Amino acid sequence: MGLYxxxxxxxxxxxxxxxxxxxxxxxxxxxxxxxxxxxxxxxxGIGEFIGGILFALGLLTPLAAVLIIVPMIVAIKTxxxxxxxxxxxxxxxxxxxxxxxxLGITLSGPGSLSLDVLFNIKFG
Length: 124
What we know:
The chain has one domain (2-117). 69% of the residues lie in helices and 0% in strands. The chain contains 6 helices and no strands. It has helices at 2-14, 21-31, 37-57, 61-80, 93-108, 115-118. α1 packs across α2 and α2 (21-31) packs across α3 (37-57). It starts with a helix and ends in a 6-residue tail after the last helix.
């Protein structure tokens, strides 16, 4: 999930994987009321990229979760909420799944193969 999320962020920030890049993402952000448009598109994309990489590595897992959960809350508030529950209708379902995964792994711990465990990084 972390690598997928990182790739998703690169679409916004850099236009990779067929993404729109910051200019077109910024234009979309302007339509939904997020400003300053290009700056926020870059912040969103880079934040998603970093959050996804950290999550995949199990490094600074609570920070990674925040970098996943906060953009999903923004997505729900600005885009998907009006479409109802289910993702095939453009609803909030997928956003909620990503949030649940990030929160669940953060609360249960990143696991023995994580960099948090390898470097003895503890939270709480």
